[in-house]
């Protein structure tokens, strides 16, 4: 993938940490110019109160071989998103790939809680963070994307359309948020297709994000220590795995074959032949289907 995306301009909305950071870095490794947005900077933290910053992500992009540009943006703020797109157009003159990865709702979901007992304030906040951010960003960024044929929009979510279709994701607000993004990608594929552009949904598997590793009390260096207690964690993946999926999609001249589809990092690893950073090809969705539904 080295320099396969040279001269390509990408916006990764929600690149501070997790999948967004992994995606930005792998796009950088392929030579892209990557605008990395998020709310947490070296001077100001978001409500997450996490240490990761967009400046760190941008530096990692540059170190990997691309050009990382960090911009503080709250994607719920219309004026900020509009200004972001204007800056990209003025500086780069184009937008080849938009990755809508904004989420920011960890800690808000009350799992296994019926809607009448779930905090309404937190639930509506989940929907705003998961859906409104993506719609606002697409509203302003897609006019720039469609100026050139071959543009790509990737909607990041949790679970493919086929997996989520028959499985309730434990709380109404979370379920709506993650299933709606798949539908959003499908709908936008219809609107982008006449312009020679592609939209699709993409999900990682069980992600070893900074937050997940902290939750298990491990690091990327010793994460295997918890497999005995949580066997499914053996099929987890780094954020770079889904990042490589995005990089391969962005470099594929025939990516339109995936227009409107809902895909996973594991599916694309098999299709393109890439691996995670340890050389493996984890597939946590297949594991979940076999164990939860197959009784293994």
- Termini separation (Å)? 37 Å
The percentage helix is: 40-55%
CATH architecture: 3-Layer(aba) Sandwich
User: The CATH topology, please?
Assistant: Rossmann fold
Question: Total number of β-strand segments?
Answer: 7
Biggest β-sheet description: 7 strands, parallel
Q: Which series of helices and strands comes N to C? A: EHEHEHEHEHHEHHEHH
CATH class: Alpha Beta
Low-pLDDT sequence parts: none
Total individual domains: 1
Radius of gyration: 18 Å
Overall pLDDT confidence? 96
Name the CATH homologous superfamily.
Answer: NAD(P)-binding Rossmann-like Domain
Q: What strand order characterises the main sheet?
A: 3-2-1-4-5-6-7
- So what's the overall shape? globular
Protein topology:
Layout: E1 9-13, H1 18-29, E2 33-38, H2 54-64, E3 67-72, H3 78-92, E4 97-100, H4 120-145, E5 152-156, H5 161-165, H6 172-192, E6 198-203, H7 210-216, H8 239-251, E7 262-264, H9 265-272, H10 284-293
Helix pairs in contact: 1-2, 1-8, 3-4, 4-6, 8-9
């Amino acid at each position: 993938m080295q320099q396969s995306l040279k001269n390509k301009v990408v916006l990764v909305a929600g690149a501070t940490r997790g999948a967004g950071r992994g995606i930005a870095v792998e796009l950088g490794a392929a030579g892209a110019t990557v605008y990395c947005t998020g709310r947490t900077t070296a001077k100001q933290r978001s409500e997450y109160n996490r240490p990761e910053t967009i400046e760190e992500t941008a530096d990692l992009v540059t170190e990997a071989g691309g050009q990382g540009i960090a911009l503080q943006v709250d994607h719920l703020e219309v004026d900020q998103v509009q200004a972001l797109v204007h800056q990209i157009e003025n500086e780069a003159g184009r937008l080849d790939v938009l990755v809508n990865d904004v989420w920011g709702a960890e800690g808000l979901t009350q799992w296994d809680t019926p809607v009448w007992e779930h905090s309404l304030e937190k639930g509506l906040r989940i929907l705003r963070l998961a859906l409104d951010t993506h719609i606002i960003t697409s509203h302003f960024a897609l006019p720039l994307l469609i100026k050139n044929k071959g543009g790509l929009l990737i909607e990041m979510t949790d679970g493919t359309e086929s997996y989520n279709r028959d499985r309730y994701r434990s709380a109404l607000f979370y379920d709506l948020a993650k299933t709606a993004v798949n539908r959003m990608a499908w709908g936008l594929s219809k609107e982008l297709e006449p312009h020679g552009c592609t939209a699709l949904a993409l999900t990682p598997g069980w992600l070893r994000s900074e937050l997940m590793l902290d939750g298990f009390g491990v690091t990327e260096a010793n994460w295997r220590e918890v497999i005995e207690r949580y066997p499914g964690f053996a099929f987890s993946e780094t954020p770079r795995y889904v990042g490589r999926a995005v990089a391969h999609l962005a470099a594929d001249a025939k990516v339109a074959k995936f227009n409107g589809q809902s895909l996973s990092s594991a599916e694309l690893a098999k299709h393109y032949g890439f691996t995670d950073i340890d050389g493996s090809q984890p597939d946590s969705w297949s594991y979940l289907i076999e164990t939860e539904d197959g009784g293994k």
